[in-house]
Amino acid sequence: MPTLQRRCYSAKPVTGDTLVIDGPEAHHLLHVLRVQPGQSLVVFDGTGVEFACDVSECRRAEIELVVRSAEPVDRELPYSLELGVALPKGDRTRWIIEKCVELGVTKVTPLVTDYGDRKAKLESATKLQRHVIEASKQCGRNVLLGISRAVQFAEWVQESGEHPCLQLLAHPGGVALHRVKPTSQGPTRLAIGPEGGFSDVEVAQAQAANWQIVDLGPRILRIETAALKLVAAVAE
């Protein structure tokens, strides 16, 4: 497993020889990690570049850094991977987001489904973004996973996007997952339903839009377990 240096995220594009880190990142660096002038950090700004920096000054609510070098570092999958999922509540959503970041998912789209909990309230976009940033810092990704607005399943399943090479919807009675062999690496979309699964109408909508139905096995899986199993199977 690769060893990563201490990393932080800059919400502003890094363009010059110096930069200032403020907000939650500065608070974490100052009050949790207690960085000091002269220490080194790796900064990423979501563009796929790593910036080797030295701490030049620590102020009350911000840190000034000097940029020593910049290097493109690609840890992305060679194709886009989107997960549409009926997100559960609370920490289970955070767990899904974190694992999707680690496994290289490009985008997560929350789905509104027939059997989903209509009263469930998703975390704010700001909180979800913080989960993405923290997971990216931990796993070494330099491009942030995108999180789309919540969308009706019937609308999402019809989107052509980048004309995916592979579209898989998890549902009992489909093809066994281990038998699904993509012919080439290309844009991929995956769908995971709520605890009650997808409705018959939704499965028919997916099949009409050229989605392949896959069975994740004989046991009943929680949303986050099903998402992890399906993503890991295609992100190898």
From TrEMBL:
Entries under SUPFAM superfamilies matching the protein: alpha/beta knot, PUA domain-like
GO MF annotation, one: rRNA (uridine-N3-)-methyltransferase activity
Coiled coil: none
Chain ranges of the Ribosomal RNA small subunit methyltransferase E methyltransferase domain: 76-234
GO biological process annotation, one example: rRNA base methylation
Reaction(s) the record says it catalyses: uridine(1498) in 16S rRNA + S-adenosyl-L-methionine = N(3)-methyluridine(1498) in 16S rRNA + S-adenosyl-L-homocysteine + H(+)
EC number(s) given by UniProt: 2.1.1.193
Compartment annotation: Cytoplasm
Domain called Ribosomal RNA small subunit methyltransferase E PUA-like: residue spans: 21-57
Pfam family name, one: Methyltrans_RNA
UniProt superkingdom: Bacteria
InterPro entries registered for this protein in UniProt: Alpha/beta_knot_MTases, PUA-like_sf, RsmE, RsmE_MTase_dom, RsmE_PUA-like, tRNA_m1G_MTases_N
GO cellular component: cytoplasm
CDD domains in the cross-refs: RsmE-like
Keywords: Cytoplasm, Methyltransferase, rRNA processing, S-adenosyl-L-methionine, Transferase
Top-level EC class: transferase
Protein function: Specifically methylates the N3 position of the uracil ring of uridine 1498 (m3U1498) in 16S rRNA. Acts on the fully assembled 30S ribosomal subunit.
Membership in a protein family: Belongs to the RNA methyltransferase RsmE family.
Protein known as: Ribosomal RNA small subunit methyltransferase E
